[in-house]
Design a protein that fits this description.
431 residues, alpha/beta, FAD/NAD(P)-binding domain, six-stranded mixed beta sheet, 11 helices
């Protein structure tokens, strides 16, 4: 019987792994590869802040799982994992409902010989009072599009009214990469919306507040990166609040533990991560306090050799450190590459390779205004980048992701098509 490899989660890591395995094991018939995801399409998660601001039209940059499966010799199953039976080697998929709440696909089970879980992470609101009810999150394309629609609705209402110089206030909780990039992208969107005639709200009348519980923006990155980013944000007119932990969110405002009150009509929570709740102690597997599956350096779960996990949903140790691998896109990409080799070795009865995280640096985009980051390598050490060059490297990260999925030729065609389309489409999504 053909070895069954089931990959749950079609994010950057899971989709890259399914594509790589399909091109090798699937094409040769050495194994059957099945990718499971709750959505029909994929969009690179680091782009969601651009979808939220309207700078990116998600329908143009999405990838269809069914088509990708056909092109790369794997199968796709639409569904959301809800349970696991390790004894029978089956996962449970919840029923899929259509927009009217009617059952589209029934609850069902799917058998595996090797299971890979790559379901990513969700934003962690840390149980903050009112956050879940009054804040928007940017974990999925639908959430990002919801934010964009609410932003656009403010402008449309103002445009239809008779009062000049109306205002809009946006509060972003969390000054990590997502929060920082969203703040800059919203400032850019304000200028674009005014240029297209929605000028009852002028750029200076969009008040953006970025709130960080820690002492500086981009707390996970070196201070030499966070300092110029902080200065650039302030030049753009973004109000940056540090050492300000949000304690409560209401319909119209946020309150911090030190007594500050921030008025906001749009509120985004972009602080912290946790793995999806269904993973917590799923069928006895070891998990940590944020629901991540604990794995060994081989990326196998600690209690089951047939189950692997990687990316944001996995707690993977770093050799020589008491910390786990950080939840970053480059880690998921590295782990997908390792697993593509490791699962092939497993079928051949060879030892599994082990994973050691390599930090190649960090890049943060500040929309068209700037980009800041550092590149790390064995020969160059750590090289600081700013401005146009940093922006080019930032864009190249997405192109590398596309090459892993489409190959070089198709990626070049996508780049060419995007270039041609710039002159025939608005610079901002206006619907």
């Amino acid at each position: 019987m053909t070895h069954r490899i089931v990959i749950v989660g079609g994010g950057a890591g899971g989709l890259e792994l399914a594509t790589r395995l399909g091109k090798t094991l699937g094409k040769k018939g050495s194994a059957s590869i099945t990718l499971v995801d709750a959505n029909l399409t994929h969009i690179w998660k680091p782009l969601l802040h651009e979808v939220a601001a309207g700078s990116l039209n998600s329908s143009e940059d999405e990838l269809n799982y069914v088509a990708q499966a056909k092109w790369n010799h794997f199968q796709f199953q639409l569904g959301r994992m809800s349970g696991l039976d390790r004894e029978t080697k089956q996962i449970q998929l919840a029923a899929t409902l259509d927009e009217d709440g009617r059952e589209l696909l029934p609850a069902r089970t799917l058998g595996y010989d090797t299971l890979v879980i790559a379901v990513g992470s969700n934003t962690n609101d840390f149980g903050t009072l009112g956050a879940a009810q009054h804040c928007l999150f940017l974990d999925t394309r639908k959430q990002a599009e919801r934010f964009h629609q609410q932003l656009l609705n403010h402008y449309l209402r103002a445009h239809a009214g008779d009062q000049a110089n109306e205002q809009i206030s946006v509060a972003i909780v969390g000054a990590g990469a997502t929060g920082v990039e969203l703040a800059a992208e919203l400032h850019h969107a304000a200028h674009e919306l005014a240029a297209y005639g929605l000028d009852r709200i002028q750029p200076k009348d969009m008040h953006i507040t970025l709130i960080e519980a820690g002492p500086r923006v981009l707390p996970a990155l070196p201070e030499r990166i966070s300092v110029p980013v902080h200065k650039t944000l302030e030049k753009l007119g973004v109000t940056v609040m540090t050492n300000a932990a949000v304690s409560e969110v209401t319909a119209d405002e946020l309150r911090t533990s030190n007594g500050d009150v921030i008025q906001a009509s749009l509120k985004v929570w972009a602080a912290g991560i946790r793995a999806p709740g269904f993973l917590k102690d799923i069928d006895g597997l070891e998990t940590n306090r944020i629901n991540q599956l604990v794995v060994r350096p081989t990326l196998q779960t600690t209690l089951d050799d047939n189950i692997f996990a990687f990316g944001d949903c996995a707690a993977c140790p770093q050799p020589g450190s008491d910390r786990n691998v950080p939840p970053r896109a480059q880690a998921a990409h590295q782990q997908a590459s390792l697993l593509a080799k490791g699962l092939k070795a497993r079928l051949e009865g060879k030892p599994l390779p082990t994973y050691a995280y390599r930090d190649y640096g960090s890049l943060v985009s500040l929309s068209r205004f700037s980009a800041v980051g550092n590149l790390m390598g064995n020969l160059t050490g750590s090289v600081m980048l700013e401005g146009w060059l940093a922006r080019m490297f930032y864009v190249s990260l997405y192109r590398m992701h596309q090459m892993a999925l489409y190959g070089t030729f198709r990626t070049l065609m996508l780049m060419l098509g995007s270039r041609i389309g710039r002159g025939t489409e608005p610079r901002l999504k206006l619907h």
